[in-house]
Each structure stands twice: as structure tokens, then as C-alpha cells.
Design goal:
The complex is a heterodimer. By secondary structure, chain A is mostly helical. Chain A is built from 4 helices and 2 strands. Chain A has one domain. By secondary structure, chain B is mostly helical. The chains are: A mainly alpha, B mainly alpha.
Chain lengths: 102, 141
């Protein structure tokens, strides 16, 4: 088999994995979306590669993109949890009864 | 970009001129691009960017800075040419720009160890961002 194909979506996974860190800032939601999309696509592509590994090249891109996506997801979800916890604890401290009674 | 690359490759194939001349031509191209940057009215661009900063929702509504606060200010400082101030403001900006440029060139030219280098750049960026964030938060206390 001489004519090797490039793995479909390998570069896409790499781009999305890297973009997930660049945009993980606004509450971490955008980064979460990008990371999860990258993970889902990469799972399909890994299945495709494992069926016949001789056909494709560009598996390293896929692996690096997958690692980037996992790290981005973990970081942005941690940040999202931090923000949620902050809202819950600080929101409990606000005197709601006084505000409502006014 | 691709056109320039093809032109360069055709140049490399039939080398009748010494290598130094090609480097000189490349340098001239670089200088020409700088001249083109000079034609852009940078002052107006900088004032436009300074007047139209995107606000950070978490800083606006909750009161804590997010991981990306300082990115735009540091980018404006970088355009102005104050490298040190931009590094102090947000140290992960320059590696991030390098990483994005490397990503685009990796997709075009398919470097040999491009994926692993991108991975290491990614980890460097994450370490810089998180460390900078915690140091900034500690400085407010």
C-alpha cells in the first residue's frame, strides 16, 4: 500500500485543542465547547485509525490535539466550577431579605 | 504565502547565484514588509483599539479577574513596541502568538516533530497563564 491518506480531522482536532486554551477565559464555557467537540471527533478518528493503521498518516497530530483538548477541558471546567462556587458562596452572603423588603 | 514559497523553491532548485544573495533578497522582502507596516497608520489603529476594548464579563459582574484579563492591554503594548511592559502585563501573550503562527505553518508545511513541539508550547502557555493568574491574585490581597 503506497498511497497513504491523511487521517481525516487530525488537523481539525489539533486546531480545536489549541483554540480551547486560547478561549478558555470567558467563564470557561467556550473552551469547554471546543474541547468536547475535539474529544468527540478524535474518538471517531482513533477508531478509524485502529481498523487499518497502514492506510493513514498524521496520527501524531491527532494524539497531540487530544492531549491539548483534555488539558483545556480540565482547566476550563475547573475555572467554571470556581466561578460557580464563588457565585454560590457570595450570593449566600448578600442580605436578600432586606433587598426584597425594600 | 504559498506563491512565495513556490517561487523560493524554484529559486533553490537552479542555484546560479550564491546563497548570500538569496539571504539578501529575503532580508529585502522582510524590510519591505516592515515598510508596508509603516504605511498603515498605526497611531489610528492603536487609538481605535484603546477606545474599543472588549470588557471582561467576570470582572464586570462578579468582581474577580479572569484568566485572560490583561491580554488586550498587553497586545496594545506589544504593538506600541514596549516589549518588557507587555511581558510584565501578560507573559503568555508572546508564546501564544508564536504557538498560533507555528500551528498555521505546521498545517501548511507538515514539520517532522511539529505536533510534539506544539504540545510543549501548549504546556508552557498553560503554566505561564496559571502562574501569572495566581501571582496577580496574591498581589491584590
Amino acid at each position: 500500500m503506497e498511497n497513504k491518506q491523511q487521517l481525516p480531522n487530525a488537523t481539525l482536532v489539533l486546531i480545536f485543542g489549541i483554540v480551547s486554551i486560547v478561549t478558555c477565559f470567558c467563564y470557561g464555557i467556550i473552551g469547554l465547547i471546543f474541547g468536547i467537540v475535539a474529544l468527540v471527533i478524535s474518538k471517531q478518528s482513533i477508531k478509524l485509525y485502529n481498523e487499518n493503521p497502514e492506510l493513514y498518516y498524521g496520527y501524531e497530530n491527532l494524539k497531540a490535539g487530544r492531549i491539548c483538548a483534555i488539558v483545556g477541558i480540565s482547566l476550563s471546567s475547573l475555572y467554571l466550577l470556581f466561578i460557580l462556587a464563588y457565585i454560590i458562596f457570595v450570593g449566600a452572603l448578600i442580605p436578600w431579605t432586606e433587598i426584597i423588603n425594600q | 504565502m504559498k506563491v512565495i514559497w513556490i517561487w523560493l523553491e524554484s529559486k533553490w532548485d537552479n542555484i546560479n547565484e550564491p546563497k548570500n544573495l538569496i539571504y539578501l533578497k529575503l532580508l529585502c522582502l522582510l524590510q519591505g514588509s516592515f515598510y508596508f507596516l509603516g504605511l498603515l497608520r498605526m497611531n489610528e489603529i492603536i487609538t481605535f483599539l484603546e477606545n474599543n476594548l472588549l470588557f471582561c464579563p467576570s470582572k464586570e459582574f462578579i468582581g474577580i479577574e479572569c484568566l485572560g484579563c490583561g491580554l488586550q492591554r498587553s497586545f496594545i503594548l506589544l504593538i506600541k513596541g514596549e516589549f518588557l511592559n507587555s511581558i510584565i502585563m501578560y507573559p503568555a501573550l508572546i508564546p501564544m502568538l508564536i504557538m498560533i503562527g507555528y500551528l498555521v505553518s505546521h498545517i501548511y508545511f507538515d514539520f517532522k516533530n511539529g505536533a510534539s513541539i506544539l504540545k510543549y508550547f501548549y504546556f508552557l502557555n498553560i503554566i505561564l497563564i496559571v502562574a501569572n493568574y495566581f501571582i496577580k491574585q496574591l498581589s491584590y490581597i
